[in-house]
Amino acid sequence: MARFVVGASLKAYFGRERTMTWARAVDELSRAHPAVRSGAVEPFAIPGFLSIAEVGAVAADGPLRVGAQDAHWDDGAFTGEVSPRQLAEFGVSLVEVGHAERRRHFGETDETVARKTDAILAAGLTPLVCVGEESEGSPPDAARAAVRQLQASLAPALAAGRDGRVLVAYEPVWAIGAPEPAPDEHIRVVCAELRAALRAMGMAADSAVLYGGSAGPGLLSRIGAAVDGLFLGRFAHDPEAFGRILDEAGSLAQSDGVRRPGTE
């Protein structure tokens, strides 16, 4: 089981040429990195839909997992949508769902996120469930809000008896795009509760809690014991910066004092 999971979504920032330049560089870094090769760090990349096939071809037979930024909950008469089963045919292994931008701009709700999460697990893929509170408040209040979102997102899957791997990206909405991430202690409190919630719900042992929301260099070194990785945004647009995060994760993974709870 990888100690840290590190990945990035390109959202809709890049066109085809820049996406492929970035993907080739990140794939090369991942293949050569000793922490990735040892299995201590698991990297992933989430391009736009139009680039999934090409990025998947670049990453084929390598350690870089390829994800999708969204999925619909079914096949059939859903014009303009893409289903988890279709994504699986193109080599996608994880699917982001419930991002704050999807909720804000496209009206996604806990119900639609839950239906998507269930469909993703049913297709044998890993959901990357995004959770996070709208406004900055106390860490305990933020933890309760994030856990409620996670429980709502997994309710149909649990009712159906699905217990696959789940990645959770804790992204406080007020920290997305901000100059700095949430305070270290805030992250520790919320992510500890999310980890506990995953265990309580009986999700797979390799499920993990990542922090996103203006994550960058140095953060993992400060909060590494409290999280299982980082979900990167604009910082990772520079492949060399992505590589520096892999370095940081690799160094931490070698430390005897940094272990994922429940895996000692």
UniProtKB/TrEMBL annotation:
An example GO biological process term is:
glycerol catabolic process
The chemistry this enzyme catalyses reads:
D-glyceraldehyde 3-phosphate = dihydroxyacetone phosphate
Q: What is its main location?
A: cytoplasm
Q: List the molecular function annotations (GO) for this entry.
A: triose-phosphate isomerase activity
Pathway where it operates: Carbohydrate degradation; glycolysis; D-glyceraldehyde 3-phosphate from glycerone phosphate: step 1/1; Carbohydrate biosynthesis; gluconeogenesis
Cell location: Cytoplasm
> What are the UniProt keywords, alphabetically?
Cytoplasm, Gluconeogenesis, Glycolysis, Isomerase
- Which of the seven top EC classes does this enzyme belong to? isomerase
InterPro entries according to UniProt: Aldolase_TIM (IPR013785), TIM_sf (IPR035990), Triosephosphate_isomerase (IPR000652)
Record's PROSITE patterns?
TIM_2
Q: Which domain of life is it from?
A: Bacteria
Q: Which SUPFAM superfamilies match?
A: Triosephosphate isomerase (TIM) (SSF51351)
The enzyme's E.C. designation: 5.3.1.1
GO terms under cellular component: cytosol
The record's note on quaternary structure and interaction partners says: Homodimer.
Family membership, please give it.
Belongs to the triosephosphate isomerase family.
Name recorded for this polypeptide: Triosephosphate isomerase
Organism per entry: Microbacterium barkeri
Taxonomy of the source species: Bacteria, Bacillati, Actinomycetota, Actinomycetes, Micrococcales
